[in-house]
Amino acid sequence: MSIDSQKPLLIMLMGPTASGKTDVAMALSKVLPIDIISVDSTLVYKGLNIGSAKPSREELEQFPHRLIDICDPAESYSAANFCRDAEREINNIVNAKRIPILVGGSMMYFKSLLDGLADMPATDPAIRQAIALEAQQEGWPALHAKLELVDPDYAAQLHPNHSQRISRALEVYRGSGITMTQYRQRQQDTSCPKFLDKFTVICLGLLPDDRALLHERIYKRFDMMLEGGFIEEVIALRKRKDLHLDLPSMRAVGYRQIWQYLDGEYDYNVMREKGVAATRQLAKRQITWLRDWPDLIRLSVDKNHDESLMRKKVELILSFLPPSYI
Q1: For burial by CB atoms within 10 Å, which of 21, 209, 246, 248 has the most?
Q2: How far is CA 257 from the centre of its chain?
Q3: Residue 45, strand partner residues
């Protein structure tokens, strides 16, 4: 991590689901002139509130978040969309003489913003439809295995049921003969300056010392969501005729499992276990991303919302910032 005091500061606060990222960001905003930009592929959607752990109306009034509720759930929102929107918001915040802090767990969004996006092939509807038919007949784990044969490095980053990314990776390879890993390597090899090159970027990562502690937080939060009306939220979404399980919004963790429960595919207890298991798998993938993240300042995940522990965490973060930025 190189710090150039002539460049504006940009903070990235990353971590697995249920690690307390929003709490840390709100605590930091009390001592730094920061504006929060959400980096979350579910929070962008309107109407996905409980299952996405969206900050409350009161929290958003006190600590405004950018890039929340900007997209209808019938639409698709991509890493390219995020990079475009994030760059605009970052420039606006810096022009206002404030510090942008990007907060979330959508690691692909962070990586795309840092490294830039490769010049990917356009979507091919015929190839995509053929892949969807294969998935219907064979299942996504089978297609994940096919991806593993041609691009093992990228396949290793994906859950066998991560339909959207498996489909896109196979579509890109079948249409161009080039793997996602090769496209990413082209990104890294390019000599073109990237958007974030003009910033001093500080990367913070909330990581649990004990994985069991994070699993406990995940269980508690999922149960709180269920008690808080998560099922009713999905019922309301299902009433819309333009929403279905093939959309990225409805494939989000928890939403898919409740939708399938409402379809009668399994009972309440199985739904709960599947929802928690899917959340744990998501957290595992996020931790895998962060484990090798360059220049990451590691922060611990606390068992509860202890104010003294939060103060220490904020003090630690401030200790990594030169006085000229504070």
Answers
A1: 21
A2: 19
A3: 71
